[in-house]
Design brief:
heterodimer; A: alpha/beta; TIM Barrel; 6-stranded parallel beta sheet; 10 helices; B: alpha/beta; globular; hydrolase activity (chain B)
């Protein structure tokens, strides 16, 4: 059977996963139910997750956000993440206000999933509104394309799709954007995570798995084996996200 | 026992310091990989002749590594000379052909001629597959009875089509390494493709083997599946002798 390399005890548990979804997945035959997602997280040694409903991303924002809130009441391992539909920036203004009023601290954007280009005026308006409400943003999309609408706005944003091939683009941008964070999921090179931590600091990194759409062990094992100091590892495995939530590392 | 059938050696143009072949060995040791079949990044992306030459030197120094002769489909005559030069060394056990860098589509005449060349030499071909055209390999294999093709990356985003292709011919092998680890992708293939056609690859050192190992863990292989996909199928396909029981 598969024998994995030994992992230090303090790396067995990953504190917070910033990239967790649940709901229906029309393009796959997957069990993405809340229970299934919670089980996957638990079985991979992930303590908590920032959870967002696919219903909000792919179909209806308002009921999706309500569904997320209920899910996080049921499964307290999860923190609610709101979403908006970028194709309806007018509706998004109201929804962001509603989310902020309800105490939601994190808003997830789905530009490629909602067929939105980086230059979309609606996307820019939504980012401004979210920053105005002091929300932390999570976003999918190719970093080299989607960095621009988030830049020069004081945004705190985690880019969920930063690929190992984009490490240099991320580093040169993060040098002047203190709030830019890369999810580790696609930092798949043998030195991608380590390079970013060394260049701009581990506070620019956060662990993300994209449960249940992606296998969890690849990103979890890569992080557990990362060449980081204890402090850096703790930061990436939960500290960065804890900071967004106003919690101590 | 683990045989990694899809790996590279040498530097890349990204912000990554992975050029030394010693890193291949370090990562193999870390993840328990016994043998690795590698192609030179230089031969894949830039200069076939210089890259293969460097690869041959590396293989002499590192017995756990075996090589792919990279053939650029745009210069088949030179590719044939590369094969004549390196196949007799016994250190090169397959042919690698890419599509992106030579600017050829998977089913182009140039790529098909390259595969035919490999078939004549009796070597398996690892080809980069990344779209629905992977299904066309079924017809290519039908036209070349001696050909054995490994669909590198298992079609990438077109993995369901790659699986469909592998169910139509017993000479198409699937190698699943991919930085986009769609959930259940490997299990989907294992449940549909004859086990003898499934392989293991990492894309190291461009990609850390943790990614491919993680995919294998999440696929929850049985003992029998593990034996076949992690080394037995590769040993048979490439004629690699091992100290494991047959």
């Amino acid at each position: 059977m598969v024998r994995l390399p030994p992992v230090p005890a303090e790396r067995h548990v990953i504190g917070i996963d910033v990239d967790v979804l649940f709901g229906a997945v029309p393009h796959r035959q997957l069990d993405a139910s809340l229970d299934a997602v919670a089980h996957q997280q638990e079985s991979h040694g992930i303590r908590r997750g920032l959870l967002c409903s696919l219903r909000g991303a792919l179909f209806d924002v308002s009921s999706g956000n309500d569904e997320t809130r209920k899910a996080t009441e049921q499964q307290q391992r999860f923190v609610p993440v709101g979403s908006v539909d970028i194709r309806d920036a007018l509706g998004a203004e109201d929804e962001i206000g509603r989310l902020a009023e309800a105490g939601v601290k994190i808003l997830r954007l789905f530009p490629p999933e909602q067929w939105v280009e980086p230059g979309s005026p609606g996307l820019a308006a939504i980012i401004d509104t979210a920053v105005g409400h002091d929300l932390v943003l999570l976003t999918s999309g190719d970093f080299s394309q989607f960095w621009r609408p988030f830049a020069d706005r004081g945004a705190r944003v985690c880019f969920l799709d930063v690929h190992a091939y984009r490490v240099a683009d991320f580093v040169v941008t993060a040098r002047r954007e203190p709030g830019f964070v890369a999810s580790t999921r696609m930092l798949v090179g043998p030195d991608s995570i380590e390079r970013i931590a060394g260049e701009v600091g581990a506070h620019h990194l956060a662990y993300g798995s994209r449960t249940p759409l992606h296998d969890v062990m690849p990103s979890a094992l890569r992080l557990r084996m990362a060449g980081l100091t204890k402090q850096e590892w703790k930061q990436v495995a939960g500290g960065t996200a804890a900071g967004w939530l106003g919690e101590a590392l | 026992m683990i045989i990694d059938v899809h790996a590279h050696a040498g530097p890349w143009f990204f912000a990554t310091d992975v050029g030394a072949a010693e890193l291949n060995i370090t990562l193999m040791d870390r993840y328990g990989i016994d043998r690795q079949i590698v192609s030179a990044s230089e031969a894949v992306t830039y200069d076939m002749v210089a890259g293969n030459r460097w690869m041959a030197e590396v293989l002499e120094a590192h017995p756990r590594l075996l090589g792919y002769v990279v053939v650029n489909p745009n210069d088949l005559a030179a590719g044939a000379r590369e094969l004549e030069k390196y196949q007799p060394t016994g250190r090169f056990v397959g042919v690698k052909v890419h599509t992106t860098y030579p600017g050829q589509t998977l089913l182009s005449k140039a790529i098909q001629d390259t595969m035919a060349l490999a078939a004549q030499a009796g070597l398996p071909v690892l080809v980069h597959t990344w779209d629905e055209s992977v299904l066309g390999l079924v017809d290519v294999l039908e036209r070349h009875p001696g050909l054995r093709v490994i669909a590198g990356h298992m079609g990438g985003p077109a993995w369901r089509t790659a699986v469909e292709a592998a169910t139509r011919t017993d000479r198409l092998y699937l190698e699943p390494c991919c930085s986009i680890t769609d959930a259940g992708r490997y299990r989907y293939a294992l449940d549909r493709v004859p086990l003898e056609q499934m392989l293991f690859g990492t894309d190291s050192t461009l990609v850390d083997p943790a990614i491919a190992m993680g995919v294998v863990v999440d696929a929850a292989l049985t003992e029998d599946e593990y034996e076949h996909v992690m080394w037995r199928n590769a040993a048979r396909l490439f004629g690699i002798e091992t100290d494991q029981a047959a």
